[in-house]
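Input.
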Amino acid sequence: MNSPLSIVQALLSLITAACVLLLLAMVHRLETRLDEANPKPKKAHFAGHSYLLVPTPMTWEDAQAHALQKGGHLAVPNSEEENAFIARMVRDAGVFEAVWLGITDKEEEGVWKAVTSENLAFRNWFMGEPNGRHFENYANLGWSSPETWNDASAHARHAFVIEFAK
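Output.
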């Protein structure tokens, strides 16, 4: 016959084991949610350049600083094909919000320039854009439709694509 003490000890052991299993399940679920909430950067290549999608939302200035620190710059689409490639890369990675581009008119209102100082031969503004005047000086891709550009304010936070020369 089991003593009351041994029964209590057995019950405590079972309760402890159940609590440990519950805690392990909760930790696993939390890790899964964190992975889903913080997707990993995605890499791709197009026309001799490399691209890195950074899904962490930042302001345009912070995103450009991050890109420079990594040895690149915010992506500048120079053709319809490159623009479509960047839009497809973003969608394929599961990012369905706007991403920053390396295009700004912060130096002179209405004069949109690439961060690379190259001429903007290609433009793909959504109908009526850019429309922000002095309040929206930074271009993003995918705000109004997946492949068109929009102007946004310095306070907006978006994912971004870094472009590397090779």
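The chain has a mean pLDDT of 88.
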